Amino acid sequence: MSVLTRAEAQTRARLLDVQRYQIELDLTRGDELFDSRTVIHFTVRSDLEAVDTFVELKPAELRKAALDGHLLDLDTLDENRLPLKDLTPGEHELHIDAVMRYSRTGEGMHRFTDPTDGETYLYTQLFMDDVQRVFAAFDQPDLKAVFELSIKAPEDWTVLANGITEHQGDGLWKAAPTPLISTYLVAVAAGPWYSVRTEHRGLPFGIHCRRSLAPYLDADADELLTITRGCFDRYHEKFEEPYPFDSYDQAFVPEFNAGAMENPGLVTFRDEYVFRSAVTDTERQTRAVTIAHEMAHMWFGDLVTLRWWDDIWLNESFAEYMGVQTLIEATRFSRTWTDFGVTRKPWGYEADQRPSTHPVAPDPEAVPDTASALLNFDGISYAKGASALRQLVAWLGEKDFLAGINTHFARHKFANATLADFIESLADGTERDVHAWADSWLRTTGVDTLTPKIGPTDNGTCTLTITQDGSRPHRIAVGLYDRDLGDEGRLSLRERLEVDVPQTEPAHPIGKRPALLLLNDADLSYAKIRFDPDSFATVRAELSALPDPLTRAVVWNALRDCVRDGELAPTAYLEAARTHLPHERDLALVQGVLAFATTQVADRYLPAPDRPAALTTLTSLCRDLIRRTEDGSHPGLRLTAVRHFIDAAAQPDTITAWLSEGTVPGGPELDPELRWRILGRLSVLGAIDDAVIEAELVQDPSATGQEGAARCHAALPDPEAKRQAWEAMFTTDNLSNYLFTATAKGFWQPEQTDLVRDYVPRYFKNAPAVAVRRGPAIAEAAGRWAFPIHAISTETLRLGKKCLTKANPTPALHRKLVDQLDDMERALRVREA
C-alpha cells in the first residue's frame, strides 16, 4: 500500500478544508466482512480553476464512489488511493460505498470471539493510517472534521463511540457528532459489553469489558473510577481549558497491541488491565499511570493535535510526564517516579544508544512519510521525552511551565500545532531562553554521562568537579550521604545540592568527604551517572541502607548502565542484587532489578556455561524473599519472588510440587497466571508434555488460557513441537496478534540452543516474508518476540546484517532488526569485557 508522504499531506492541507464525515457501518454481515458507507463534506480553497487530490481507503470491495452526484471510475483505485480529479473551488460531497475486512492483528476493525463463552467483540484501532481499513478518509492529522457515526450491530450488542451513543431500535446506534478531531482518533467498540456507568461533574463516565471478565471488573471498579475521577479533577486544576468532549468511556478490549489508545471520549485499553489473577501494587500503579496518561491526551493530542508525525513526541512525551506527575498528586500512588525511573527510563536510555536513535523532536525531513513515523513510537518519544520535560520543569519552574501549556491550549484548541508553536507558547511566559533549551534537549541524540571528581582543599574539606561526556545543560541534585552514627547500617542525607552542568564554577565546595556522593539524586535529569571510587565502594556494600527508594533507583540504574557499558561485571550486578534485594521493600525496584538480572544478565550477558550459577543465585535470592514474607505482611513482594523463582528454576521438583498442591507453601494459592507460568517453565525443562498442557486448557479455556497453551506448546524441547510452532508463526498466517506473540515467546529458550540452532538462519528468511504478508503489527511482533534473542554469536550477527541489506525488510521489521542486532553486539562486548 502507498504511504502518505509529508509533502503530499502539506499539499492536500493547502487545498482542502474538511467539514464533516457521515459514516454508516453495518457489522451484521458475518465473521469476515462489514459494510462501510461514507459521505465526506469538504471544500476546495484553491485559486486554480481545477485541482487533483485523492482519498484513501483499503476495501475488500469498492462498490460505489460518487463525487457531487457523478459516479467515479472504480478501476482508478490504485492500492489505497482513489483519485479525485478536476476539483473546482467551493463545496463538494464525496460518497463511498465499500466492503471492508475485519482484522485479526489489532489494526483497523479488530474482531475477537471470546473462547470462554463464544461472544464476539469488535473495536477500532485507527492509529496512523489504519482508518482506511474502516472507512474512506482524507487521512492525515491536520484535516480535522466533525464525525457523525451510525452503526448497525446485532440486537443484543452495545455500541460505544467518541460521543454518547443512542440505540434507535433494530440494532441501529447513532453517536453524537464529535467536535473537530483527526481521522486517526475516531473510535467504535461494539459487542455485548459488560458496563459500569456513573456520572462525574455532569458527564457520563463508563468502564467496559467482555462479559467473561465482569467479576474482575466489578472487583476493581471502585479503584478504576476513583483514579479516573481524581485525575480528571486534577487536570481541571492544572488546565484552564475544560475537558472538551461529551462523555468519558474506558473500554478494556481484547488483543490490543498497545497499552491504550487516546480516542477522545472512548479510550481503549488492553484488557489484561482487568486483572484475572493476583497482581502487585506496582502493577496496579502501572495501570493507573496508563489511565492518567490517556486522560492527559484529551488535551494534548486530541484537543490540540500534531500537524505531522514528526511531532509525535508532543503527544507522547507530554502524556507520559503529565500522567506520572498527576497520578502522584491525585491518587495514593505517591512513588510513581521510582517505577518510572527503574522501568520506563532505561527503555529511553537503551533506545538512545542504538543506531536507530533519533532526536525527541526529529527534523521534519527525517519523518518523510507515515511508514517512517511509525518507527518513532519508542523509548525516546515516550521515556526520554518525558524525562526532558521533567528537566524542563525543574529548570523553568512548574508555574511557568503550566502557564505555557495553557497558552498553547488557548491558541490551538480543536486545531493543530507544531514544536515551534509549543516552544513559542512556553517562551511567552518566561524570561528564560526556551528556544536554546529546546535545541539542546529536543534536537540532539544520545545520552550524556556525568562523572564526579572529589578533590581535597587546604582546610580539610572537599570540592566537587563534574565532568560531562555530552553537551546538554543539566540542572541536577547532588546528594551527599553520611553513615548514620545513631543507626548502624543506614546512610543519611546530609545535604542535597542544586548544581548546574556545565558548572559555572570550576569546583563546588561540599564540606567533608561524604560516604556517598550521588549525581542526579531525585532523578530530575536524563543522563548516565558514574561514581567516584569511594562512593562506588559504599554503593556495593551499603546500597540498601539508602533511605529513599527513588535514590536507590538512581543507583540501580547506574549499576545497570555500567554493566551494559562493560564497566561492571555482570556477576557483580548479581552479587549486588543478592546482597541488597533481601532488604528492599519497594516493589518497583525488586521487580526491575530481578527482571534485568534474569532476562539480560543471566540470559544474555553471561556466557552459557555461567548461566546455571546465575540461576542458582537468583533462586536463592527469591527463596530469601519468600521466607522473609511468610508472615503475610508483604503479599506483593512475596508474589514477585514466587514469579521470579518459577522463571529461574533450573530443576522442576519444587515448582511441580507447587502445581500439584495448587499453592505455594504459606501462599499464594495458584491462580491462572501462576499455573500457566509454572507450566511454561516446566515445558522449557521438558517436565511435562502436550497432554498436561491440554488438560490445563480444559480448566482454563479463556483467551489468556489459549495464549498460555500456545506458549507452552512452543516451549517444549521437542523437534515436532518446534516445527509446528514455526509453521504456525511463519506459514499458515492463522494466528491472531496475541497468539503469534505467545507462540514466539515460547519458541526460543536459552536451554534449547542446540535444538533450535537450524531455525536461526530460517528466521532471517521467513520474517521478512511474514512482515510483508501480515502488516506492521505482526512485523513488530516478529522482530520483537520471534527474533532468536538467545543465539548470541557473530554468525547470527552476520545473518542479520545480510538480511538487512539483501532481504529489504519492511520498515517496521527493519527497525526491530537493527535494534536487536545492536543489542546482540552489546551482549558480545559485555561478554568480552
TrEMBL record:
<dbReference type="InterPro" id="IPR045357">
    <property type="entry name" value="Aminopeptidase_N-like_N"/>
</dbReference>
<keyword id="KW-0482">Metalloprotease</keyword>
<keyword id="KW-0479">Metal-binding</keyword>
<dbReference type="Pfam" id="PF01433">
    <property type="entry name" value="Peptidase_M1"/>
</dbReference>
<dbReference type="InterPro" id="IPR050344">
    <property type="entry name" value="Peptidase_M1_aminopeptidases"/>
</dbReference>
<keyword id="KW-0645">Protease</keyword>
<keyword id="KW-0378">Hydrolase</keyword>
<dbReference type="InterPro" id="IPR027268">
    <property type="entry name" value="Peptidase_M4/M1_CTD_sf"/>
</dbReference>
<feature type="domain" description="Aminopeptidase N-like N-terminal">
    <location>
        <begin position="89"/>
        <end position="185"/>
    </location>
</feature>
<protein>
    <recommendedName>
        <fullName>Aminopeptidase N</fullName>
        <ecNumber>3.4.11.2</ecNumber>
    </recommendedName>
</protein>
<keyword id="KW-0031">Aminopeptidase</keyword>
<feature type="domain" description="Peptidase M1 membrane alanine aminopeptidase">
    <location>
        <begin position="227"/>
        <end position="441"/>
    </location>
</feature>
<dbReference type="Pfam" id="PF11838">
    <property type="entry name" value="ERAP1_C"/>
</dbReference>
<dbReference type="Pfam" id="PF17900">
    <property type="entry name" value="Peptidase_M1_N"/>
</dbReference>
<dbReference type="GO" id="GO:0016285">
    <property type="term" value="F:alanyl aminopeptidase activity"/>
</dbReference>
<dbReference type="InterPro" id="IPR012778">
    <property type="entry name" value="Pept_M1_aminopeptidase"/>
</dbReference>
<dbReference type="InterPro" id="IPR001930">
    <property type="entry name" value="Peptidase_M1"/>
</dbReference>
<dbReference type="InterPro" id="IPR024571">
    <property type="entry name" value="ERAP1-like_C_dom"/>
</dbReference>
<dbReference type="InterPro" id="IPR042097">
    <property type="entry name" value="Aminopeptidase_N-like_N_sf"/>
</dbReference>
<feature type="domain" description="ERAP1-like C-terminal">
    <location>
        <begin position="517"/>
        <end position="826"/>
    </location>
</feature>
<keyword id="KW-0862">Zinc</keyword>
<dbReference type="InterPro" id="IPR014782">
    <property type="entry name" value="Peptidase_M1_dom"/>
</dbReference>
<comment type="similarity">
    <text>Belongs to the peptidase M1 family.</text>
</comment>
